[in-house]
């Protein structure tokens, strides 16, 4: 897992954006799974995962277990080179039309303080970091789910944990090897962002939608 601990958090505090649903109009992780696998393989993999989804609905497993099962099913045995190549084309071709105009406008404004600007997401890093770098953001300013690789091949495991709920705040603190980091502003749109929003001095829930739905 990427660890940015060698430097300190900006004294002015962090500006942290969730990605899916906040900056974008859709869940990019779900879209990337279909993009990566292809339609027919994606369908069969989703069918294999149905018992996992049912177990989650029944409260028998948590979100981390679901994310771990999905990543194992879709990425175990895949080469790092192939994953990152497809992640790059996904970031180039699929993500741009999904960006909310108001979110892009706000993000561009916040880039004036680039050292404070971070993305914290439950999506995976390969395509998120490519998109962020295109936006002028350092890749280590993306705090998201890391895929584990050994000798250039995906193990099918998460390197760390699902960056959702309280784990968003945990991941931010871990990035700076600190028990506390001042979060000046936070932007989110779901239950998985509430702990992040509550930890911020100023929080914005679904701020880039034309209606609050």
TrEMBL record:
One of its GO terms (biological process) is L-serine biosynthetic process. SUPFAM superfamilies: HAD-like. PANTHER family: HAD-IB FAMILY HYDROLASE, PHOSPHOSERINE PHOSPHATASE. GO terms for cellular component: cytoplasm. It comes from Litorimonas taeanensis. InterPro entries: HAD-like_SerB, HAD-like_sf, HAD_hydro_SerB1, HAD_sf. This is Phosphatidylglycerophosphatase C. Pfam families: HAD. GO terms for molecular function: L-phosphoserine phosphatase activity; magnesium ion binding.
């Amino acid at each position: 897992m990427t660890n940015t601990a060698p430097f300190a958090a900006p004294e002015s505090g962090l500006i942290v954006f969730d990605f899916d649903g906040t900056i974008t109009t859709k869940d990019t992780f779900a879209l990337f799974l279909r993009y990566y696998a292809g339609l027919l393989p994606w369908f069969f993999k989703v069918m294999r995962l149905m018992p996992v989804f049912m177990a989650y609905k029944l409260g028998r497993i948590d979100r981390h277990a679901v994310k771990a099962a999905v990543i194992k099913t879709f990425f175990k045995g895949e080469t790092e080179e192939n994953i990152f190549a497809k992640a790059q084309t996904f970031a180039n071709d699929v993500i741009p039309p999904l960006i909310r105009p108001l979110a892009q406008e706000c993000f561009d404004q916040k880039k004036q303080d680039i050292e404070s600007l971070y993305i914290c997401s439950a999506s995976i890093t390969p395509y998120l970091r490519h998109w962020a770098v295109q936006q002028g953001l350092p890749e280590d300013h993306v705090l998201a789910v890391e895929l584990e690789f050994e000798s250039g091949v995906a193990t099918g495991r998460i390197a760390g944990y699902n960056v959702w709920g309280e784990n968003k705040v945990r991941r931010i603190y871990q990035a700076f090897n600190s028990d506390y980091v001042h979060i000046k502003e936070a932007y989110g749109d779901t239950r998985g962002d509430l702990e992040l929003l509550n930890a911020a001095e100023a929080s914005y829930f679904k701020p880039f939608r034309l209606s609050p739905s």
